[in-house]
Specification:
Elements lengths: L18 H28 L4 H12 L5 H8 L3 H13 L3 E5 L7 E5 L1 H25 L1 H15 L1
Antiparallel strand pairs: 1-2
Helix pairs in contact: 1-5, 2-5
């Protein structure tokens, strides 16, 4: 049975490495990711994108130049599903594929101008939701948060 994680309990910063606080941090990260996804839902539907299409396009927007296999691996999609969705995005002229400089078999992905235009509204929604959270937390907390997230994705 999973331990109870109470996200509303007072936080004692001296205990940040205890299991309960680490569980609480994981819970907050997951809840934050869900909140960002929920905030972008209306813009996603308005753009006519499925959730996997949005996931692929937004990942390319924030990390352009990944190879097809790097992106597929980072998103954890199966080869057939990823290939089908990427093909659909390519047919809609939302992405561009460039031949890799070190390996001609590789294709590096970027957004086309249409892809940038389509994802800009989603990016604005995400920025505004994050801006509210940052404003509420203050610059010191934002700095700490950014350092934690950067260490997490290294």
């Amino acid at each position: 049975m999973a331990p109870d994680v109470n996200l509303n309990r007072p936080f004692d910063p001296r205990l940040f490495l205890m299991d309960q606080e680490l569980d609480r941090g994981v819970g907050l990260l997951l809840a934050g990711a869900s909140e960002l996804t929920r905030a972008a839902e209306k813009a996603r539907r308005k753009a006519g994108l499925s959730k996997p299409e949005m996931q692929i396009l937004m990942t390319i927007r924030y990390w352009p130049g990944q190879t097809v296999s790097e992106l597929r691996d980072s998103l954890g999609m199966t080869v057939p599903t990823f290939a089908r969705i990427l093909g659909q995005l390519d047919q809609r002229n939302l992405i561009e594929k460039e031949v890799g400089s070190a390996d001609a078999r590789q294709r590096r992905l970027t957004l086309s101008d249409s892809g940038v235009t389509l994802t800009t509204q989603l990016a604005i929604v995400l920025r505004e939701r994050l801006r509210l959270a940052y404003r509420s937390a203050g610059p010191d907390a934002v700095d700490g948060n950014r350092r934690v997230l950067a260490a997490l994705v290294r």
